[in-house]
Task: inverse folding
């Protein structure tokens, strides 16, 4: 498998602030690679350095086996960029916007026309070709933004939070489209604050905090890095401190919390944790309602590794 991106020992400073701190990363051909990190973690700065939009203080960046520089136009022609802020022209229609951005890479009119039509069909904007961006909903505007970035059929596509503030239907359409682009041969870098998106589509993931890569692997590999293996939540009223302490003392339980209505039990290992906890409640004739048992999520990984709740970082 070919290496598409190779970043070695990247450092980017803004005065005394180290935005990217000796960051290294390899992304292989055909991956959907997720970048996770709180606001200010260095994700966008890393991407801007990767694209040679920012000068950096130290390190090397190679794309498709070649060193990336501001004048590496042969490399840039093979890259599609869809950033969080929609970048289209309000004065141009949907079709004209896609045609303009595609024309930056493809000068042959017949080929460009075909690429534009394929991009329109890909994002489902056939009924909106003569619309101006201001007339589009947020979800349709995001789709237009994606079409402008992928019409020239790039081998590498970078998507920086492309589903922010869109409705669930448009979000699903975008995620399905990203997976189809990948099946068609594109390597993809994907950043998002929505953990379920990362879990759904990414083959590997890196977690960045304070400019450093602090974890990397598949979603399953990341989940095995943390202490939590199961979180049990039980609806229960009138739980005494003594009963909670008994739950605390059970094998494999390392933390409990009670808010007056829900008992939350965090476990590390073990196969019969729920049965043991319910036995404690039944022993004291404590009634309970709904019971949930959840395996760790990427949000649990992120919270344990960084000490931050990624959901609190949204917006």
Result:
């Amino acid at each position: 498998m070919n290496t598409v991106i190779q970043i070695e020992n990247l450092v980017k400073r803004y005065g005394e602030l180290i935005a990217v701190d000796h960051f290294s990363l390899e992304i292989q051909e055909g991956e959907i690679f997720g970048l996770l990190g709180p606001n200010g973690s260095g994700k966008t700065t890393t991407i801007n350095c990767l694209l040679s939009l920012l000068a950096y203080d130290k390190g090397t960046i190679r794309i498709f086996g070649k060193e990336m520089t501001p004048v590496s136009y042969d490399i840039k022609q093979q890259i599609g960029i869809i950033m969080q802020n929609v970048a289209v022209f309000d004065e141009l229609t949907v079709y004209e916007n896609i045609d303009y951005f595609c024309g930056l890479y493809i000068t042959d009119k017949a080929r460009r026309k075909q690429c534009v039509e394929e991009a329109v069909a890909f994002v489902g904007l056939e009924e909106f070709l003569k619309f101006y961006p201001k007339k589009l909903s947020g979800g349709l505007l995001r789709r237009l933004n994606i079409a402008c970035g992928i019409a020239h059929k790039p081998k590498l596509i970078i998507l920086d939070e492309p589903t922010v503030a869109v409705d669930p239907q448009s979000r699903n359409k975008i995620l399905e489209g990203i997976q189809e682009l990948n099946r068609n041969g594109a390597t993809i870098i994907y950043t998002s604050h929505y953990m379920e998106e990362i879990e759904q589509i990414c083959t590997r993931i890196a977690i960045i905090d304070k400019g450093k890569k602090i974890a990397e692997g598949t979603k399953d590999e990341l989940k095995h890095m943390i202490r939590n293996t199961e979180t049990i939540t039980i609806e229960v009223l009138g739980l005494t401190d003594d009963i909670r302490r008994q739950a605390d003392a059970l094998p494999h339980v390392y933390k409990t919390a009670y808010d007056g209505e829900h008992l939350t039990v965090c476990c590390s290992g073990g196969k019969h944790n729920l049965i043991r906890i319910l036995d404690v409640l039944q022993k004291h004739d404590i009634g309970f309602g709904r019971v949930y048992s959840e395996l760790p999520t990427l949000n649990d990984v992120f919270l344990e590794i960084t000490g931050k709740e990624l959901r609190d970082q949204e917006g």
Q: What stands out?
A: The first strand starts at residue 3 and ends at 14. The domain at 3-216 is CATH 3.40.50.300 (Rossmann fold).
